[in-house]
Amino acid sequence: MNRPIQLGLRANAAQFTLLVAINALVGGMVGQQQTVLPLLATDVFGLTGYTFIFTYVAAFGVTKAIANYVAGTFSDRYGRRPVLLAGWLFAVPVPLLLIWAPNWGWVVAANVLLGINQGLTWSTTVVMKIDLVGPRQRGLAMGLNEAAGYGAVAVTSLVAGYLAEQYGLRPAPFLLGLCYTALALLLSGILVRETRGHALLDAGRHGARADGLHDHLHAELSNREILTQTSLKEPALSSASQAGLVNNLNFGLSWGLFPLLFATADLSVGQIGLLFALYPAVWGAGQLVTGALSDRIGRKHLITTGMATQAAALAVIALGDGFTVWAAGTALLGVGTAMVYPTLLAVIGDVAHPIWRGRAVGVYRVWRDLGYAVGAVVGGIVADALGLHAAVWATAAVSAVSAITVAVRMYETHQPVPAPQRRG
C-alpha cells in the first residue's frame, strides 16, 4: 500500500538521505580529476599554454550548462528519476577515457561526458530535494545537498592527489570514478523514488505572497518566458543567475589555474592536493550552516556578503607566494562560496512556481555553470598574456562587481513559513 505524499524533511528523511548520498557520488566524479588533470596536461602531454590546458574545463562547463537545461525541462515533463538514471549512464566511460587517453583530445571528450553527467544528475537531485522538503526548510535542504556534493569533491581531490603521488597520475586516481559510478547506478536504479508528485502537492498549496511580488509569475509559463524571467527580467532570479555565473567563474579558474599557480612555489603533488581540497572542504562544510541560516535571516545579505568575501579571498591568493598564505586564501574562498551556493538555489526555489521549478533551476544552472567555461577561457587568456597572478586579480574584481549588483538589484525572497501545528 502506497503511503500518502507528505512534504517536509522529517516525513521524507529516508529518500532525502539517499539523494544526499547520491549527490556526494556526483561530486566525487569531479574530485577524482581536479588535482590530477592539470598535472597530467603538463607532465604527460607536454602542454604549456594555459588557454589550451583549460580547454577541458571549458568543455565541461559548456556541456554541463546545456545538460542543466535539458535536465530541468525533461524532469518537469517526464519525471525526475529517469533523468537521474540517464545522467549516471553518461558517467560510465569517463574514468576509462581518462585512464587510456593517448592525447589531450580524449581528456576533453571525457569532460564533455562528465559535463552531461553532472548536469543531469546534480540538477535532478537539487530539484528532487526541493520537491521533498516543501517551502519551510528549502535553505537547509540546499545546504545539505551542496555540502555533500562539494564535501565529496574535497575528499576525492585529496585522495586522488595521494594516489597520484604514491602510484602515478594514471590509472589509480580514476579508479575512484569507476567505483562511484557503479554504486550510484545501483542506488538510483533500485532505491530512488519519483518526487514529481511532491511538486504537484506543493503547487496545490502554493499561495501568493502577502507583498504582491511574483503575482506575474503564474503557474503556466512557456519555456521562453521562464528563460527570460530567470535570465533577465525577474530581479531576484536574474541576480541569482549572474551571481551563480561569477561564483563558478571563480571555481572554473581555480580548477584550471590553482594547481599551476601552487606549483610555482615547488610544492609537492600532495601539498597541491591539500590546498585544492581545502577550498571545497570549507565550502562543503560551511553550507551545513549557511543553508539553514538563510531560512532564518533571509537570502540577500548572505549572497552579497559571500560574493564580497570571495573577492577578498582571491586578492589574498593573488598576493600570496607560499603554502600558508594560499591555505588562508583558499579557506576564505570556501567560506564565501558557502554563503552563496545553497542560498542562490533557495532563491530560485522561493520565486519559481512548483509547476515550472525544474525548468527554472535548469536555466539558473545554465548560467551558473557557464561560469566554468568563462573562468577557464578568460583566466587562460589573461594568464597567457599577463601571468597567473593577474588572472586571479581579474577574477577578484569581477566578484566585487557581482556583490554590488546583488546588493542593488535583488530583493529578499524568503518569507518565513510557520511550522505545522501538531494536533492532539
UniProtKB/TrEMBL annotation:
Q: Which superkingdom does the taxonomy of this entry point to? A: Bacteria
Q: Where are the transmembrane segments?
A: 12-30, 50-71, 83-101, 107-128, 140-162, 174-192, 245-263, 269-290, 302-320, 326-349, 370-386
Query: Where is each Major facilitator superfamily (MFS) profile domain found?
Result: 12-414
Pfam families (UniProt xref): MFS_1 (PF07690)
Name of the protein in its database record: MFS transporter
Give the chief site where it resides. Answer: membrane
Protein topology in the membrane = Multi-pass membrane protein
> Which InterPro entries does the annotation name?
MFS (IPR011701), MFS_dom (IPR020846), MFS_trans_sf (IPR036259), MFS_Transporters (IPR050171), Sugar_transporter_CS (IPR005829)
Which PANTHER family does this entry report, sorted A to Z?
Answer: INTEGRAL MEMBRANE TRANSPORT PROTEIN, RESISTANCE PROTEIN MDTM, PUTATIVE-RELATED-RELATED
Q: Which Gene3D superfamilies match?
A: MFS general substrate transporter like domains
Name its cellular compartments.
Answer: Cell membrane
Q: What high-level taxonomic lineage is stated for the organism?
A: Bacteria, Bacillati, Actinomycetota, Actinomycetes, Streptosporangiales
Q: Which UniProt keywords apply?
A: Cell membrane, Membrane, Transmembrane, Transmembrane helix, Transport
